Structure formats: C-alpha cells, structure tokens
Sequence to fold (325 residues):
Amino acid sequence: MNTFSFDYTDNDKFFKSNSFQPEADRPWVDKMVKQFNTKHHYLVCDIATLADNLYDAVRAKDLPGMADVDSSLLFFCKEVKKDFKVALSGECADEIFGGYPWFHNKEAFDTPTFPWSRNTETRKMFLTDDFSNSVSIDEHIKMKYEKSIQQVPKLEGENPTEARRREIAYLNIKWFMTTLLDRKDRMSMNAGLEARVPYADHRILEYVFNIPWEMKCKDGLVKSLLRDSSTDLLPHDLLYRKKSPYPKTHNPLYEKIVGERLRDVISNPNAPILSFIDKKAVTNFIDTPSDYGKPFFGQLMAGPQLMAYLLQVNYWLDYYKIEIV
Fold:
C-alpha cells in the first residue's frame, strides 16, 4: 500500500506546540509506516512554492480560499498524481464525529454565530470606513446563521446543551464540511487526481448524526466512537493521540514572503484591493508579529494566512476583472 504524509521545509526546526497542533506529525507517521510496512512517500513543500501556489489555488477554486491550506493541498495533489490517479482522504471525520474544538468549548456554545469564525473583527479592521458603512457584514452573517439554525432537525426531549451541540453539528455539515469538500475536490481535480472521501458517505453521516454525544465522546475523549471502532487495527498510542489538524508551515520565511508580496501589492495605486481596504491598516498589520491572537478562521488561519488571503483576494479581483462598485 502506498501512503503519503505532508510537511513543509524546516518545520522540524520551527514547530511550536499550541492548543490546535499539540505536536508534530512526523514521529507518528514513522510509527504508522513501521507498523503497516507501507510504501510511504514523505511529501515536503518548500516555502516559495507554497506562496507561489496561492494564485494557482485561486484559479482552481475560482475564488479566494483558505490561503496556504489550499495552495499546499494543490501542490501535494500534484505530487501524488505523478504516480497515481486515485487516493483516499480523511475529510469529514471531524464534522461527523465531533472532532473540532467548537464541539467542546463553552465559547462556541454561548456565541450565536458560526463557531469557526467568531472573530470577524480581525477582517473588518482592514476595510475602509466608506466600504464598511456601505455593506452590512454583521447583519448578513446573522441572517445566514439564523436561517441555518431554523433548519436544524429537533429531537424531542433533548436537553439545551445537546440541542446546541446538534446545532453546531448541523452548521459544520452544511457549511464547514462543504467548504472542505469543495477545497479537496477543486485542488485534487485541478491536479488530475481523484480524491475519494469515504467519511463523507451519506449513510455514515445520517447514521452518526443521531448517535448520542456520550457515545461519540465517551469519557470526554474526542471522537472516541471512531477511535474505539479501530482498536483492533491501529497501535493504541497512535489511535488515542490528541487530534492534530491538517499541517501548516511554522517557518517564519513564509510570513516574510507573503508580507513582502502584500506590501508590494498595496504600494501599487492600481491594485484592485485598494478600492475597499485601508492601506495604512494593512501596512500596520504586516509590521505586527503574526501571533495577534485567535485564528480568524477555523484552526489554522492566523496572521500569515490572513496576509496570504488578502493576496488571493487581490489576485482574484485582477485575474477575473471584478470591479467593486
């Protein structure tokens, strides 16, 4: 069996543990390869390629996307496609079995909005006053959220905590999971690779949706139901390892590259993004260390990714000749 793992140049030197990525993947990859004697391929993306692929990813998606989370996947899919046409991937397990932090933390339960993007102020601070006053961002988000909540199936007799958890699960399936599936489909097919996602099988989703939370997260263990189903297949310490998401680069060179490119963009008076962003605010952000607080989207989209996203937005406006009126 051929297996693949993804990493970035010098991640071993710069990796820093955090609540979202508690430890590096490589030791666990090595353990898995040894256990199953697979023909393993360690795919490593260099930092310049990661930044360059931001624009290819926009064309693959026809929209700005998840910055280097998209561009790296596009690179990795191209590498896999050199020798293979079809691959299996694990998207959707977290949405279905409750793996994300917002299934568990109090803030997500108490905040009436999409739990993976509560921090909208980070993005709005880049908008010019005129543009910000002309659009109703918060009202639009609220409208989409409330409409989605109204569609959540109800279970008679469910207590308020579990009813809210069901809402979060539904939002994940209808919004977050859709985003990831679109990402996987767009990036893989652009590379000519057919990536199949068995966890997205509607029969699994429909069955697991109504399984009680105390079974999905037995004794507080994230995705315990999924883990327990594989106790006779996988090494115990690997199976019960704390969840770690899709890898991102920790190399400071990436932030340096995207920061310099974004600075070049906003120094061009004809840059389309300047029609609605505050140049001074963006400049100040580039000059500020990346660890400004919480991710602005999901688990991985922090400072460098936000700069990369702005690069994607500008490229999208320019490439598709879109005008902001």
User: Anything to note?
Assistant: The first helix runs from residue 11 to 14.
